[in-house]
Structures are given as C-alpha cells and as structure tokens.
Amino acid sequence: MRTRFVKTAALGLAVASTSLFAEATYSPHKYQQNDWFAEFGGNTAMYVNPAGIAETEQLEFSAAFFSSISGEASQEYVSLTFPMDYKHTLGLSFFENGASIDGGKSYGEYSWLLGYAYNLIQCVSLGIDISVLYINQFDEVTHLTVGADVGLSWNPLASSKYGYLLVGVALQNLAQPGISMEEDGGGFVAPGFFGGERDDAYNIPSNLNLSFFYRGLNRSLEAKAEVSLIDVFHSDAEGGDGMNPEMSFTLTYYLSPHLGVRLRFTKEGYPVAGATVNVKDVSIFRYLALDLEMSHDDLYAKKNRGFIWAVKITSRFGDTREEKIGEERYRRLKIEPENDYRAAMRLYLNRQFLEAAYAFGKVQTKYPAFHLVDQAAFYKAKSFENLRMHKAAKSVYEDAIKRYPQSDQRAKYHFQLMNIDYKEGKYTDAMAKYQGIAQKFGESDVKADADYVAGQIKFEQGLYQESVDLLAAILPGNANYFYARYTMGIAYSRLGKFDEAENCFRDITEQPVSNQSERDLQDAARVKLGHLFFSGEKADVAAAAQMYAQVQPGSPVYDEAMLGIAWSFLKVNKPDEAMKPAQWIISNMPESFLVSEAYLVIGYCHFMKKDYKGAVNALEQAEKRTEQPVVSVAARDSARQAYDSMQDEFDSVQVKALDLARQLPTPRVESKREALKPSFDKANQAIEDYASFNQKAIQSDRFESNRKRILDDAGFTLATVKTKMGQGAGSAESAQELDDLDNLDLDE
Q1: CA distances from 238 to 1, 198, 203, 622, 628 (A)
Q2: Mapped to the 3 state alphabet, what secondary structure does 543-566 carry?
Q3: Longest dimension (CA), the chain
C-alpha cells in the first residue's frame, strides 16, 4: 500500500505533474503538465521549455498559488528570471506541492529549478534546466532526486504588422527524476535515462513538448497551444502504452492594454475561465500583472476536487536588455574612454609624461571609435615630445596623420612635426613644413603657431625684419603673443628701431597674465624697457630704475634687474646705493653670469669713493671671472660626443617605449614597462642633462658679447687705479676719463 501511495503522490512533481490531487493508481499515460502556472510564451515556464526564458527582456519575478476550494491540496511557486545580455538568461524557480490525507500528516514535494538559455542566433535559443526534487512522505520517508530538461525556441515572426510568433520544442526529463519504491528508502535517488528499467525506483516519464505562442491584432490577442507526447521512452514494466498525446490551448483577449479576459482548455480536459489586469511604470515596477483563473474539475471527468482556482502575480523591474546593453555600450564607448582619457590627461598635466604616453596609448588602442581618440594621439605624441623623445613623438604624429585623415587635429600634427625640426635645429626642414601648413591650413588656428616658430627661426638666422613680419600677425589672446612680442622687441632693438622695440616690450607689460611663464616674460620685458630708457639718446635713468624695481624676487631676471638698479645709482653718482644690489647678486646668486659685472660695478663704486684698494680687489675679481668663457669649446665637444655615443641607446629606449604605448596594459605589458623603466630613466636623465648643458651654453654665448667689454673696462679701470696708487705706469688723461662716469652704459 505504501508503495502504491508513493507512486500516486509522485504525480505531484513540480517538474513533471500536478496530479497529486488524484487518487488513481500510477499510470504514466495520465501524466499532465502544469497548465495553470506557466505555459510556453510565459517567461518562467522552464519546465515546459527551458528555452522560453530567453524571451525575458528584464528582471522578472512571479509568484502563484493554486488550491482546491477546500484548501486541502495546494501548490505554490515563486520564480525569478534574469537577462544578462543579448545572449544569456538565467532562471530560478521554487515549487511546493502539498496534500493531507484525511486531515492527518501531509505529503509534500519541494522542487528547485535552475535554468539557462542561450541565444544561438538572432531568433533561435537553446535552453537547459536542472531540477532538484525533495519528497517528504508524511515525515516517515524522505529522499532527494534530480532531473534535467532541454529545449529549443524559434521566433520566426516579430513585427508590428504580422504580430509575434514563437515556436518551441522541448524534451522534458531528459534526465528522469527517480522515485524510490522502498518503504524505508531515503537519501539520494539517482536519475534515470531513456526509460531504463530499475529495481530501486521508477522514473518520472520523459515527454516531448511542441509549443506555439502568438500575439497579434495590435497586441490585443494572445493564443497559446501545446501538443505533448507523454512518456516517449516508455518502459513496459510501468504499464500503459506510452507516447500518449495531450494538448491544451489558451486564448486571451485584451479589452484594453491593461485588462484582458482568458479562456483555457487544459491537458486534464476541463475548461478554465479567467482574467488578467496589469499596470505599467508604477513605483519600482516597470510592469505589474495579476491573473485570476477558476474552474471545476468535475465538468469533464469526476475527480472529486470540485471548484479549483489559481492566482498569479508577475512583476518586472529594472532595465530591459536593450537599456542594459545600451548603457554598457554607452559606458564602453563613452564613459570608459572618457574616464581613461581624463586619467591620462591628469598624468599629462602632472608632468608624468611617460605614464601619460602609456595612458593615451591605451585610449587610442582600446577605443578606436572614441570621439577624442585623435586628441589622445596628439597628447601621446606631446608626452614623448616633452620627454625630448622626438623620434617616438614624430612617429606618433606621422601615424596620426595617416590614421585620422578627417580629424581637426591634422593641422596640429603637422605643426608639431615642424616644431620638432625647429627644436632639433633643422631649420630648412622646419620651413618646408611651414610652407605646407600655410598652404593647407592657412585658415586654422595652427597658422599663428606656425608663424611664431617660423619667426623664431628667422630671428635665429639673423633675419630680423623677416622675423618681425611673421611675428606681427600673432595677436593678443594667442598663447604665443607674449613670446612673439618679446622676440619682436629684441629684433627691433638690433635693427636700431628703438621706439618700435619699446612699444613691443610695453605691450607685454600691459597685458594680463594667465600663468607663471607669462609673468616671468613680463619681468623680462620690464628689464628690457629699463635698458632702453637707460641707454637711449635721451637717457631717463629714473624711468629705467622704476622698471627694474618692478621685478619681483624669484624672477629669472631678478639678477639682471638688480644689476640695472646698481648701474642706475652709479649713473647718478650714488656709489653707496649702487653697491648694495651688486653685492646682493654676488652673495645670493654666485652662479649668475652677471657676477663678474657686479664686481665691475663695485670696483667703480670704490673708485668713486677713492677707496682704491677696494677697487683693485673688486676689479681683479671682475677680470678673473671674465677671462675664460663659462662654457668652453672643449666642454661643448665633450658633451656632444658623450651624447652622440648614447644615441643608439636613446633610440632603442624610444622604440621600446613607443611599442609599449601601443599595447593595452595587460600584466605582461606592465611587467615589460617596469623592466624598461631603469633604461628609460637613465636615457631620460642623460637627455635632460644634455639639454641643461645646451641651455647653459646658450647663456654663455649671450654673455660672450659682454665679456670683452667687461674685460676692457675692468682692465682699463684697474690700470688707472694702480696709477693713482703709484703701482703702475699710466697717464693722467686716462684717470681723468675714468672720473667721468656719465658715459657708463648697459648692453641691451
């Protein structure tokens, strides 16, 4: 008797049956599917066809309750489906069946289903689920078993004109849950396959389901139909014939988008009437529906359950697949590249140029469709350029010209190539590129930058008027305006056009500054104005001193301003005041190129005060510090040879750094970057040292024009002082000339 009941109760299996309410003996041909809770077309119908969950468009939760009017037999379930992207969907369901016998202990089944659906191609999906069934037979015998289903769904029609059609085929219980036939059987019961006979248990039947779902008439009609072959792998030991056909259908007509009426004919053979109501976009729910269905199972065949009913709630919330994928694409194509671009720009602005080159390279490589990828290429090259790695920078600019032919950065790429030639002293190549920019990009903002570099080249070549003609086109507001005006001022001075020079320097001092570099250039312009006032045909020493005094401590030209103040006091015969700024230069800026001239001023001051001993000491220091060039020819040759000997190593480091900047920062690439870092630091330090040496050499060359004057003035004055002290032969005329200090002058 117990075995018979077990077989009868097993029909309540959530994956396979809801016939636990029947009291007939076990017969596989009476197996039926759950028509109440889920049919094909519903997103949680995993046990009808696990591929059906592929149609889920957003996170969906549903729960249902089925019961007889007496409440003695019932079934409940909750289900959750989760779409991950276009191709993947997960589903999870929990079912509980229960019935009591004459008010005594209850029989219960608890089933968990975990399903997965994969979109094979655009309209075909494959689904599989695994079920875990726990059976409690009146607390006396319990056991656990598992099963599995597989299915396909096909969506051949999906349009607003013809409606939506979904066709599915599934094999239920491909792995058949095993139901123990032992009275004291418990624990785990392994599943069976293909109806194979077994002694310890029997298998829940395998079934072939063919399902159809159609939605049309402007979404007002839904029709569902299912045809099933029950027990397709029939075992003669189970009785019956197997391959038993059953079918059901459902029609739902929506009186409005939110209210529908339903008629169903179940596989058990009785009609069901019901209604559905739904609302959309309320609170946290994107969709919320309530279904109520009722029937009487004695209408067709006597089952003695009487009135039965079911209620189901379905809710959808969160983003749809399209919204999630759209957000992911937006994040991948817009947010992620912009975040990476900003991170790279932060490195660039923090002057971490190698790291910035790698970061901009990541943007360029990982996001080739990003709207700022051409700018990323520009700043990647600028990062290398700021590291004085011109070979790598030129390679990036040249590649960007080919890769982004429609980019508005193309003019900048061409200009930077011109600028690199200028920095490397390749003036002919730079001017050839300038002509190309003037022809192709004459109306672009880059033209002014190219004019500036071309003007600087002409200045370096001594073609001062041509330099002025090019630089005059650069107007206020341009980043190079201060620098262009300063070069024009120097050029006009060398052309003897002092009024024009004064106007250029004054333009700089009257403009608002936006950065420290422009502030420094303003100080340099004030010093140059002071020199013009001091040395003009109608010298205005007071105006010159006023200009020098406006230069603040910390300025790169503060020593020159202090020297100008010293000369100004000396010019008006105030030696005590003149000595103070000169001594400040000697004490506080001992490496300055102006120290020798500061000693010359002090020597003059002592001479005017008739302190001949002090004059001799100062003038001898002036001579000593001026006799040899600050940077000798031998030193230049040695530095150049050392730099040239490392050129191959520099080129190798640049090539490797450029190659690594083209790769995504995988662990392997990151390790290569770390390995390159010592070689890079060594090469970069050598490049920086050589650049600093060249800058010092340029300053030495500028000082060279003053060196002879200082030597002549110091030597002449020293000879005169020694004559007055009776220590050397000299002429009275020379001493008289020295007394007249009104002719003291400053070099421009």
Answers
A1: 17, 11, 9, 121, 116
A2: HHHHHHHCCCCCCCCHHHHHHHHH
A3: 149
CA dist., res. 531 & res. 561, Å (int): 10
The amino acid occupying position 694 is: N
Q: Which amino acid is at 440?
A: K
Look-up of token digits 């937006």: 330
User: In Å, what is the CA distance from 112 to each residue of 63, 131, 727?
Assistant: 14, 6, 117
CA distance 65 to 79: 12
Radius of gyration of the chain (CA): 47
Calpha distance 188→133 (Å, rounded):
10
8 Å CB contact between 178 and 223: no
Q: Strands 58-68 and 221-230: what pairing?
A: unpaired
Task: Tell me how crowded residue 484 is: count the other CB atoms within 10 A of its CB.
Answer: 27
Question: What are the residues whose beta carbons fall under 8 Å from the beta carbon of 738, sequence distance 6 or more?
Answer: 607, 716, 717, 720
Reported pTM: 0.58
* Residues paired with residue 112 on neighbouring β-strands, in sequence order: 94, 132
Closest to 73 in 3D by CA, of 82, 84, 65, 83: 65
Dihedral of the alpha carbons of 675, 678, 684, 687, in degrees to the nearest 10: -120
Name the nearest CA neighbour of 742 among 595, 579, 533, 535. Answer: 535
3-class DSSP assignment, residue 33: coil
Tokens coding 672? 């290569």
Coil/strand/helix, residue 665: coil
The SS3 of residue 582 is helix
Dihedral angle sign, alpha carbons of residues 131, 135, 141, 142: positive
Look up residue 511 and give its two tokens.
């403009």
Collapsing DSSP states into helix, strand and coil, what is residue 176? strand
Q: How far apart are alpha carbons 124 and 122 in whole angstroms? A: 6
What distance, in Å, lies between the first and last C-alpha atoms of the chain?
A: 122
Nearest to 600 by CA among 723, 748, 746: 746
β-bridge mates for residue 143, sequence order? 135, 187
pLDDT per position as a tens digit, 92-140? 988 887 766 666 677 778 889 999 999 998 889 999 999 998 888 777 7
CA-CA distance, 549 to 542, in Å (whole number)? 10
Q: How many CA atoms lie within 13 A of 136 on its CB side?
A: 14
- 45-73 in b/e form (b: 16+ CB < 10 A) is bbbbbbbbbbbbbbbbbbbbebbbeeebb
The tokens for 566 are: 């010293």
Virtual torsion, Cα 692, 696, 701, 702, nearest 10 deg: 110
- Report the distance separating Cα 136 and Cα 200, nearest Å: 18
How far is CA 212 from each of CA 116, 215, 250, rounded to the nearest angstrom?
20, 10, 10
Strand-pair category, 141-159 with 187-189: parallel
Sequential DSSP letters for 105-138: SEEEEEEEEEEEEEEEETTEEEEEEEEEEEEEET
Alpha-carbon dihedral sign for residues 128, 175, 168, 268: negative
Tell me which residue of 123, 131, 173 sits closest to 153, measured CA to CA.
123
Enter the DSSP assignment of 480.
T
Pairwise CA distance, residues 260 & 291, whole Å: 9
DSSP 8-state symbol, 658: H
pLDDT tens-digit map of 35-73: 566 667 666 667 788 998 888 888 899 998 888 777 767
pLDDT at 411: 94
CA distance 386 to 211: 68
Q: At what angle do helices 481-494 and 464-471 cross, to 10 degrees?
A: 150
> Tokens 């249902």 sit at which residue?
64
Per DSSP, the residues of 189-207 read E--EETT---SSEEEPPPE
Instruction: For residues 717-741, give the mean pLDDT.
Output: 60
CA 514 to mean position of chain CA atoms = 30
Q: Which residue has the higher pLDDT, 392 or 66?
A: 392
